[in-house]
Amino acid sequence: MMRNYFKTAVRILSRQKVLALINVSGLSIGIGCFCLFLLYAIHEFSYDRFHLKADRIFRVAEVSKNDAGKERGTAGLYMPLGPAMKKDFPDVESFARFNGYGRYLVRADHSVFNEPVAFADPELFSIFSFRILSGNPADPLRDPHSIVLTRQKAIALFGSADPVGKTLEIKIDTGYEPFRISAIAEDIPTNSSIGFDILGSFEFLAATNDRKDGVNSWRFTYGDETYVLLKNGSRLNKQPERMTEFRSRYVPEVTATKVKPAMRNATTFELRPLRESHTSTEIDVGEGYTTDPKNIWILIGISSAILLIACINFTTLAIGRSAGRAKEVGIRKVIGGHRKQLAIQFLTESLLLSVISTGLGFLLANLLLPLFNRLCGRDLRFSFTQFPELLWMLAGLMLLVGIVAGSYPALILSGFRPVEVLKSKIRLGGSNLFTRSLVTVQFLLSIGLIISTLVIFRQLEFMRSKNLGFDKEHVIVVRAGLADPQRIYAVFEHRLESHSEVMGVASSSFGLGKGNGEMNDRYFFHSKEFFPIVYPIDPEYLPVMGMQLVAGRNFDSHILTDSSESVVVNEELAAEYIAAHPADAVGQQLVEGVMDTGKRKTIIGVVKDFNFEPLTRKVRPQLFTMIGHGEMDNPSDFFVRIRPGDPGTTLAHIKKDWDVLEPGIPFRYSFLDEDLDHFYDSEKRWSRIVGWAGGISIFLACLGLFGLAALAVVNRTQEIGIRKVLGASIPSIVLLISRNFLQLVLVAIVLAAPLAWYFMHKWLDGYAYRIPIGWEVFAITGFVALCIALLTVGMQAIRAGAANPVKTLRVE
User: Fold this and answer.
1) Which pLDDT belongs to residue 543?
2) DSSP per residue over 406-471, as a string?
3) Which residues are paired to 183 by β-bridges?
4) In the beta sheet, which residues pair with residue 624?
5) How far apart are CA 347 and CA 9, in angstroms?
6) Which residue positions in the chain have pLDDT lower than 50?
């Protein structure tokens, strides 16, 4: 019996080639898009599950709650944290510290490379399930001068997948240090929170000049993440009071000062499950990235909307072509066919189309995967080994689409009464409320996506063009961290200022924009404790960057005490902690570090607030210190302001000067405006993804509208012929055919506008600085949607209106 259903389905679909093509193409596009978003969601939710001990691995975070109860924290914590937890908690079986955010000059086989190098404790390989391919599998990092490479990095550096025993040199401070390659690891999976290509020993990192002061210090942080492996049965992660007491023991300054009792427990250590690390957006992880699970579900919702539009196409076209199948149903019933048999026949046709569409959609998804990877910033692959759930999800999707798309047409078509269908045609008309509702839903979803795209684009443009409080244009940032910036800066500055295109040069210990570090430190004003962002700068920094002083003065290199006893603060810090008026803050003293024994710093100036972080955040308290000669505030970034115009010649001069001073170190630079734009890479990806989704949804909706219009023209062939004979013009026929469809689009616009406004208003709430959603967004979208719908339906209507009425009236 099933074989007969299948043969009949193939025969019917072969007779309706155009409608079958529309259905298959629409479903294929919808399924292909859904497959891509499904792969993305599976990838993001599968982070770190390949570790055998994942359920016992936790990352330590320092978390604070504001007055509203909102949590914010960081995973880059103190160097002695891991050893202290191992000593104080019997629950901790092992710990490993990891730092993977530094770039170094690496020398291999007499070639020099600029590579990211990570460092970790030896226990990393016993806690995590990173596979060792060759070398020492048990303890590859026990020797401080040992190094582990991934397979691909070993090939890139040495041309061999097994260079175990060879020497790799890394530039540390001013010289190269030799490291012996102790092991080769399998390439790290893309769904791993910890990633590395070159991994050194944390013991070596802790002994470097920049780190040795922080080995036993609970004041400095360097971005080190601490992971602990709890013993079986431990509930330490469920006992916050133990973690709070542990922090107060080692960071006593918080409770030793005159802080409000309610604030004493506002900051604590927490153990966050490893599997949740990638989706914990409230925890900062340096240059690593996290994914908001809400955004993943939004993407799944968008792809489901596209798939739903494709399924609606199938349903509406199946109902529309009921006119051609009505006599078939009537004859089948007259000769003894049962409704159940007819329903199975129509469902078989739907499932057959679903199988074909799923195959083509999966093929389309594979072809579009490189483009999608660029859109979402990932390196995804359809791997049934890495993501075994993909197989049954695709099979379930194929079955679900076939049933959802075909169930209603099967029930409708199989329910026709033989006497009625053999007397007249079933026509697509206004009485078909379900069909009209489906068409409206299609355009409602499409218009909602288009409105969302326009709002995202406008917010993105607003963030790019907003005055940040300084001049970000025409500034070249020279990355000098791999050189000896303290030694070369004065000479480099002098050489650059001799070029007429250079307007000014400044230096800082940190850059601006995404991927650049920042430093917090503890300060007190009387009994008020706060943790401002600290930027060590030179006296030229503020004028070169175009920042404005609203009170006081700038640093002066001729005043010796400025480098050790003076600070410049921003308006936000002055207003929140010091005085209501900036001028009243000048001359006030702050205490750095510990309340009673810390260094005293005098506020010499107040700078106008500027946005040094993405516009999702309001300006935070910030404090400038003057670069001295300490190890914590060496210059690492040089800021060169150039004249407007083509920067090519100026860059060539800067590179030439750099090569003279540091011939063995690559010249690395960026443009400040581009660095700041990287804050909004996520928004750029969102705008592209939602834009493509909106375009595809409009295309699919129009594809279905095109098919329905074609069926409507066929059903009204005689009527159109008679109207033409009676003198009807082509525009009047176009209006006749288009009117009902345009009404549906208008209803969709009216329904989509408030829904889109609500959801985009909620999305904009995540930005401290945002645009208003103006009426013009809805007007433009509605006008475009009406034009597209009119064009789609009008093509069919014009063809019908232009047909010879003599031939038209002979159709029957």
Assistant:
1) 94
2) HHHHHHHHHT--HHHHHHS-----TT-HHHHHHHHHHHHHHHHHHHHHHHHHHHHHHHHHS--SS-
3) 135, 148
4) 535, 568
5) 9
6) 5, 254-265, 421-422, 425-431, 629-631
Q: Residues 470-496: pLDDT tens digits?
A: 898 999 999 887 787 888 888 998 899
**Separation of CA 396 from chain center:** 28
Residue-level pLDDT at 629: 46
In this structure, how many other beta carbons lie within 10 angstroms of the beta carbon of residue 186?
Answer: 12
Query: In 3D, which of 568, 548, 570, 537 has the Cα closest to residue 471?
Result: 548
Q: Which residues of 47-61 are buried (b: 16+ CB within 10 A; e: fewer)?
A: bbeebebeebbbbbb
Q: Kindly list the distances between the CA atom of residue 48 and the CA atoms of 56, 178, 192, 801, in Å, as whole numbers in the listed order.
A: 12, 32, 5, 62
Q: Where are the alpha helices (DSSP H) in 89-230?
A: 124-127, 151-158, 202-206
- Name the H helices within 1-142: 2-15, 17-45, 81-88, 124-127
- Euclidean distance between CA atoms 300 and 319, whole angstroms: 28
Of 722, 731, 727, 744, give the one whose Cα is nearest residue 789: 744
Distances (CA, A) of 225 to 64, 264, 463: 17, 24, 31
pTM of the model: 0.76
Three-class secondary structure of residue 182 per DSSP? strand
**Separation CA 315–CA 19 (nearest Å):** 12
Buried b (16+ CB within 10 A) or exposed e, 91-101: bbbbbbbbbbb
What amino acid is encoded at 517 in this protein? G
Looking at residue 64, its pLDDT comes to 82
For the chain, the residue count is 812
Please report the DSSP string for 472-538 in residue order. Answer: -TTEEEEE-TTS-HHHHHHHHHHHHHTSTTEEEEEEESS--STT---EE--EEETTEEE--EEEEE-
Name the residue among 694, 24, 682, 687 with its Cα closest to residue 303: 694
Task: Say how far apart CA 136 and CA 134 lie, in whole Å.
Answer: 7
The DSSP code sequence of 554-573 is: ---TTSTTHHHHEEEEEHHH
Q: Residue 373: phi, psi to the nearest 5?
A: -60, -40
- β-pairing, 637-642 vs 533-537, is unpaired
pLDDT in the model for residue 133: 92
Q: How far apart are the first and last CA of the chain?
A: 36
Q: Treating both helix axes as pointing N-terminal to C-terminal, what angle do 681-715 and 433-465 enclose, rounded to 10 degrees? A: 150
Strands 198-201 and 111-120, by their bridges, are parallel
Amino acid symbol at 231: K
Is residue 492 within 8 A of residue 638, CB to CB? The reply is yes
pLDDT given for residue 181 in this prediction: 94
Is the CB of residue 451 less than 8 Å from the CB of residue 756? Answer: yes
